[in-house]
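Following up on my earlier message about cobalamin. Here are the inputs again, as you asked, copied directly from the submission form:
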Amino acid sequence: MDDAQLAAIVDAIVRELKESGAVKTNVIAGKAKQSLASSSDFASAPVSTALSSPSVVPVKPRATGSSAALNIDLPDPTTPQARMTPRVKNPKDANGLRALMASTTARIGVGRAGPRYSTASLLLFQGDHAITQDALYRDVDQKLLDEFNLFTVQTKVEGGKQEYLLRPDLGRQLSDDAKHIINEKCQKNVNVQLVVGDGLSAAAIEANLRQMFPVIRQGVQNANLTFGTPFFIKYARVGVMNDVGELIKPDVVVLLIGERPGLGRAESMSAYMGYKPKYGDTDADRDVVCNIFENGGTNPLEAGAYVVQIAQKMRKNQASGVKLKLAK
Ligand code: B12
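Thanks, got it. Here's what our run produced:
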């Protein structure tokens, strides 16, 4: 890349930052210029037109050994208002575009700066990706588990989240320790066994468990069914329900688990359910109440009531999954 191309890129970035209000041009961009100019990479580059324009940035003497830094202070791009701001320059139908954007969580109307995303769109994308990573890699808050007296057992995943992600098969099996603990602590042959698993999003459990757990427990008890001893499974996959079924021999297993997070959407939980789960059962033998989250998803309170209804239906028909669908 030659100096002219480099200068053009710097110009474009500074122009975009100015347009978005991120850079207070007179003060900050001046410092940025000093900072760039004092860096060895940029020292020999010609000063670009936008940076050197007197109306934009006062030309200051080059600071030797200056500690001046580029200070970027963009508004938070993750607020609902910022998300919904159309970034297309001069749209033909501004109201139509706004309505379209309000109708979906898809990333539309994001605009562009040449062939690139606008800075705000790029930062939102990166911010949302960070939310996803956080949800995936961190553990469910122990305080929340304590609130519901959930003891923790683990699957055969021993190498942390990385192994959990790479080896779904291990997440479907309880460790020998886990089996031992469950055998010791849990009531057997219950009507409904509730289990919580981290799955792919700790944030999902934290966002919904507080609301959903009491509704399920209360609903099961109101229906004169036994509730069992609930517990938490770390590094859980849906298939672990089979091990739970084999150990406890309940009529119905309900597994609340964090769904695979989408970009910026990490709080979605699912309730997977099975009638008398056993080794060899597949997803065809299960049902799922999915997309459980507040404000736009299946409300966790309603989802709790729905889970109880399905559990009753499973018991009545002695079936779950496809067999339940086919039952009269
Ligand atoms: C990943 C995924 C899949 C993958 C699973 C592959 C894999 N090995 O991971 C594939 C592409 C195979 C898949 C297929 C289907 N899926 Co799917 N899937 C998802 C998704 C995006 C994430 C699930 C997740 O996070 N699970 C949690 C993790 C921790 O569990 P896991 O053990 O890693 O994953 C297991 C379960 O997710 C299960 N599973 C996936 N989909 C379904 C659907 C049903 C009905 C059941 C019982 C189980 C199940 O498969 C995985 C392996 O056992 C969800 C979206 C969501 N919002 O939840 C939809 C979702 C669960 N799937 C859905 C559907 C409808 C299906 C299909 C029936 C589609 C079809 N018509 O063929 C099939 C059925 C799958 C089956 N095995 O019987 C719906 C369920 C809606 C509902 N209430 O019934 C969802 C909610 C998507 C949506 N439409 O919103 N799916």
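One observation from looking it over: The radius of gyration is 27 Å. Hope that helps, and feel free to reply on this thread.
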